[in-house]
Amino acid sequence: MAFMPGSEWLGRFDAVLLEGVVYDKRAGLVSVHHLATSVPESVFVMFQLTFAIITPALIAGAFAERMRFAAMLAFMALWSLLVYAPVAHWVWEPTGWLARMGMLDFAGGTVVHVNAGIAGLVCAWMLGRRLGFGQEPLMPSNLGYTMMGASLLWVGWMGFNGGSAGAADGRAGMALLVTQIGAASATLAWMAAEWVVRGTPTLLGLCSGAVAGLVAITPASGFVEPKSAMLIGLLAGVGCYWGATGLKRLLGADDSLDVFGVHGVGGTIGALMTGVLASPTVGGVSGSLQSQAAGVVATLVYSGVMTALILWVVDQVVGLRVSRQQEIDGLDLSLHGERVE
Length: 341
Prior knowledge:
- This protein has helices spanning about 40-60, 70-90, 95-100, 110-125, 145-165, 170-200, 205-215, 225-245, 245-250, 260-275, 280-285, 290-315, 325-330, 330-335, and strands spanning about 25, 30.
- Helix 7 crosses helix 10 (about 260-275).
- The protein is mainly alpha-helical.
- The longest helix has 29 residues, at about 170-200.
- The termini are far apart.
- Helix content is about 65%, strand content about 0%.
- The chain contains 14 helices and two strands.
């Protein structure tokens, strides 16, 4: 659905159940995909599955502590097929309409982050606020875990962005370099913004800034030079800080982990700046702000509407939100019979 040639909207179904993905040692036959001819197709499949897995996982951060487990399973399956796959086809498969328009997205700024960001916002709106939201502090339970998670993300992101080159070559190396620069710049920018506005820099803010930078550099990582990566990171640090604070209050959504404020806003900043800063000396193409904006808007509208529709259907069938008592008891205990200390 996502990576087979087909119409402008969706790929053909020739590869259902991975038909055609082969390795025949005796015949010396190893299939390759037309988007990654330097690696076996099995590697390309597994690599793209990591993107397909992480995107709905990001959405879960927006509705943390509120959705029923059965509802989450149904929502994630439907969303992956009806939202993620089509958007991935539009942007990454050459026959997709946004790809034909010239939209650039090296490793998922629009396909993953804008897509997940708006879906998370819709989830937060439709599920409502957590108990106690706005009335009592809902602080992270363990900042040490937050720091470890952000560090693992930072390292893992190198695989996403560098691997999107499809080869261990100079472009992959540049993608790694600008990813590091963008993330570091955004980390410092978020910390500075928080320091100025709140009077204190925080570890939570530092980690959020790092993720914001990683998000924003993602679409640009195979297209921009180091100095451009620094600019993208600085803009993302300040922009996503506003997205996670001022914009969040303006929208009135209990987006638990700032999925829209960090991924939605950061992905938008990165996508638009890719259109401005893409260098032909890095990726061989120039960017178009018009094409980038069209892709962002199309993703926001399609993902937002489809997410709301899927949530409504799931709510009618199994119900979306846990009971008040289940939320008080905690979902680990009330839904799974387990306790996490």
